[in-house]
Amino acid sequence: MFPGLYDDRVTSDLLPQIGAEQPERGDAARNRRLLLDAAALLVAERGVDAVTMDAVACRAGVGKGTVFRRFGNRAGLMLALLDHSERELQQAFMFGPPPLGPGADPVDRLTAYGHARLALVEVQGDVMRAAENTPESRFSAPARAVSLTHIARLLHEAGVDGDHQLLAMSLTATLDATLVLHETRDLGIPVARIEQAWTELVRLITR
Fold first, then answer.
1. Residue 5 domain-assigned?
2. pLDDT in tens, the chain (207 residues)
3. pTM score above 0.90
4. How confident is the model at residue 39, as a pLDDT?
5. What CATH number did the domain enclosing 160 receive?
6. C-alpha distances in angstroms, 51 versus 60, 70, 84, 162, 178?
7. SS3 for the chain, per residue?
8. Which residue in 110, 107, 87 sits closest to 33, CA to CA?
9. Is there a domain that residue 116 lies in?
10. Which structural domain range is residue 35 located in?
11. How would you label 108-121 residue by residue, b for 16+ Cβ within 10 Å and e otherwise?
12. Which positions make up the DNA-binding region (predicted)?
């Protein structure tokens, strides 16, 4: 079972799990934002394959060594971009308005979470897929643990019987960026249809 899953303080404890680094100095934080903004622009303009350490350095107007020192390698850069998106999603489901945020029925919140995750995949799917394809992070990233804990907690609140941890993992698998991109790009399945399938799956599990 996830530590602290049913603790009332869980929502305030989840967010810091992403990224265990110490708080950055103001100049370091600005440099990090500059590099991530440059990488995000490259993704938007030319696709994720265009995001190389050289290209990010050139777009940001810094030396390539600066990018390597900050992120280590390309996989680290992809994870940093993903981390930013995950933080925004976490803020929404922990502190934002219902139905995604607190105050709504747990089933409605779980449905809204899946829709929000699918919207994230649709917008930043290539970055998510690149990050997911790094063996060291695919299943052990802190961001994944936060989402799994959130889903498991909602299942508990909805009165679902069974192993909430494994159920959360199974549900999350249907929102995997690689799978969703395959469904939309290779199979031509509209995102709206995938959203409806998620809604039906949630209703089946929680009825």
1. no
2. 444 444 433 444 444 444 444 455 677 778 888 898 888 888 878 888 888 999 999 999 999 999 999 999 888 888 888 777 788 899 899 999 999 999 999 999 999 999 999 988 877 788 877 766 665 555 666 777 888 999 999 999 999 999 999 999 999 999 988 899 999 999 999 999 999 999 999 999 999
3. no
4. 87
5. 1.10.357.10
6. 12, 15, 16, 43, 18
7. CCCCCCCCCHHHHHHHHCCCCCCCCHHHHHHHHHHHHHHHHHHHHHCHHHCCHHHHHHHHCCCHHHHHHHHCCHHHHHHHHHHHHHHHHHHHHHHCCCCCCCCCCHHHHHHHHHHHHHHHHHHHHHHHHHHHCCCCCCCCCHHHHHHHHHHHHHHHHCCCCCCHHHHHHHHHHCCCHHHHHHHHHHCCCCHHHHHHHHHHHHHHHHC
8. 87
9. yes
10. 10-206
11. bbbbbbbbbbbebb
12. 52-71
> Is 189 in contact with 183 (CB distance < 8 Å)?
yes
Number of domains in the chain: 1
Task: Give the integer Cα–Cα distance in Å for 66 and 10.
Answer: 36
pLDDT at 82: 79
Residue 43 lies in a domain: yes
* Residues 15/150, Cβ–Cβ less than 8 Å: no
Residue 132 pLDDT: 66
